[in-house]
Amino acid sequence: MNKIFTLLIVTFFSSCVSVQKYNAHIDKKIDVDKLQQDVDYTKEKLLTKHVDIDLYHSKQIIANRLDSFKNSIHQPMLPNDFSREFSKVISSFGHGHTTLSMLRKRTEKAEAKKYKKTKSPFSLIELKTLDGRLFFEKNKNIKDSSLIKQGEILAINGISYQDFRKDNIGVRKGDGFITSLDEYLLPVYYTAKLRNVIGNTDSITLSLVKNDSIFTEIVRREYPKKKGKNLRDEKKVDVVKSEDKKTEKKKLTKEEKLLAKKRYKHKEDIKKYFGYNKSRNDYQRELIFPNPEDSTTLVLKIKSFSIGHGKEAYPFIFDSIERLKVKNLVLDIRNNTGGYVSDINYLYSFLKANDEVKMAISNEVKVGSKFTMINKYFNKPNVIGHTFGLPLVLYGSVKSLFDIKKENNDYFLNTKKKKYAINPDKKYKGNLYVLTNGMSYSASSIISASIQNDGKAIFVGEETGGDYNGTVAGQFIDYKLSESKLKLHVGLMTYRPNTSRELKGRGIIPDIPIKMSFEDLINKKDPQLDWILNDIKAKQ
Known about the structure:
Elements: H1 2-26, H2 32-49, H3 59-72, H4 79-91, E1 99-100, H5 109-114, E2 125-130, E3 133-139, H6 146-149, E4 152-156, E5 159-160, H7 161-168, H8 180-198, E6 203-210, E7 213-220, H9 231-246, H10 254-273, E8 276-277, E9 282-283, E10 285-288, E11 297-302, H11 310-323, E12 328-332, H12 341-351, E13 364-367, H13 372-377, H14 390-403, E14 404-407, E15 410-414, E16 431-436, H15 443-454, E17 457-461, E18 471-480, E19 487-495, E20 512-513, H16 518-522, H17 527-539
């Protein structure tokens, strides 16, 4: 017993030391020669392991840029400063999924326990940017004030957003020669920096401006409400109990129980199919009537393709669309950064222009070598995955050897056997519009390209952040840089839509380009959707 107790004490303190050591590394500058070693390591991995690394620039140009960055390092740097500057170089190669991590400070166990059931001030606000300005997307803690909702955020805890933006623009661009994704992701990086600098705190102070007036607002951590009853509550409970005794609980018949069970299942299916998020109290898939007086026009808003249950969800959704007799469908995938390939294939099967059985993606996915998947499976050995999970790892490795074929010195993973190449009976046959913007990325860009190629839809909004001709994504390997401890996220597969075009490194360009302004967003105006509604009205 004493030995076990001693072991627990040693484990606890070693854990605390490891957290302190990790956090101390973030605040310690790294010598020039060690940073240059990390650049060399990154160069070797990108040029040898990254599939299609030379899709937009030759390997010689990529090597030259990396060498130039290496030679430009003359002073020691903090790991995250190194990550920021190095990410700008890596981003210039045109692969939006290929990223270099930033290090985020860890919380010691005692502190994590203290805040376990609380909500951080950062989790209570969602930030968005447009035209280089920052504002609230949502706030769950601040009083309902139009002044606050429509105010531009200048700084949080004295850390200026404009200064941050100036330093971090270019850290993560879109695919190819697209740069729109970068601006949309800056609030995410800004929040990450704030968390690192400020740490766990009970409140944050926001500086805002509206109509040339500068003011502040404090966002406080949410603690769980203490359970307890006052005398008034107890009296109410006693009254309720006495009334309950007087009225006997009605016994349900067998049919009524069955009906209640069906209703409950239907409610749970709705939550599953539409991707209910309990913490946010919203849905990732939504059906919206933009005009309550017109039941023939419907918006299908999909915030992410990572929800799952697409095989069950889309038949349910399109059955509902058919029952509603919808004539004009608006597919809104703005701010949708992608997700599962299976999900876009299920959705595409209901939107494609003909009865041909085909997927949104190409039948063949390019990989780096015959052993791509084996390298992934065994890149980071771990006790659980490679002992208890060894049969699955071996099965996946052997299967990949048969699924990957060589063609003209390139290797391709065959996806023809995937069950999500379906041809449903109830395809949508009405008018179709698609809304996109710079944050429509990855899988969102792939399905957009396939739909646009069909010629069935009118695209409205902004150019997507993802390349029309596909993206390197799907499966990744993380390589840890030994000196900075940063992780290099390297793509292993090139996914392409079921079409292609000669224009290289550009996204899906809308038929009707309409850019949102900062004033549109803070005033809750949507000129992109408004154009569609006016077009529908004009054609009636």
